[in-house]
Amino acid sequence: xxxxxxxxxxxxxxxxxxxxxxxxxxxxxxxxxxxxxxxxxxxxxxxxxxxxxxxxxxxxxxxxxxxxxxxxxxxxxxxxxxxxxxxxxxxxxxxxxxxxxxxxxxxxxxxxxxxxxxxxxxxxxxxxxxxxxxxxxxxxxxxxxxxxxxxxxxxxxxxxxxxxxxxxxxxxxxxxxxxxxxxxxxxxxxxxxxxxxxxxxxxxxxxxxxxxxxxxxxxxxxxxxxxxxxxxxxxxxxxxx
Length: 241
Known about the structure:
It is a single chain. By secondary structure, this protein is α/β, with parallel strands linked by helices. The chain has one domain (11-240): Acetylglutamate kinase-like (Carbamate kinase, 3-Layer(aba) Sandwich), CATH 3.40.1160. The chain contains 8 helices and 9 strands. It has a 9-stranded mixed β-sheet with strand order 4-3-5-2-1-6-8-9-7, with helices on both faces. Helix 1 links the parallel strand 1 and strand 2 (50-55). Helix 1 (31-45) crosses helix 3 and helix 5 runs parallel beside helix 7 (202-210). It is globular and about 50 Å long. The two termini are 18 Å apart.
């Protein structure tokens, strides 16, 4: 429990897609969406929970688009990693405008704009009540930001990965197409694999399974679902453990 006893988690890693920050009319970053995300994070922070964040870059660049046109895979992936730093800087700014201390750490050296990722420093920041945004993916091509989230969550000894989506958990079928689809309250790693349920890419999911890292899939955009999930309420999201 946290010090105020309101959550079963002391430290979480929040995984956000880059699309969560995306804007319309050619804007890669929607400041209103970034402010909304910062507000949701601040609600969790106020419970006394230590928060780390990993963000994708799909709003800025999707490597498979370039690869499909013949671009070198390593170059395309490095562009995506740089995109996550842009998103991380935007989120840090939004958090600090709300009065929260935040740091961006990146797996790619960018000393003028962000700290290098150092595991013990990231943990120390969180212990000092700073939100840590872990950008730059793993620092290596061929790995997704899901894999970065799984890796960093294990490294910083997070209690759980919260995967932010637009759906309230994992369902037996697509709930938009099948009104009879059932939301799973809890799932085992084996059930996810055997039923081919889409939670994370295989590399990321296997890393979580091998290290017993729980994953919570939750609708980030629906009212207070994120807050309820980190409080341990079973009525929202799906817990995979």
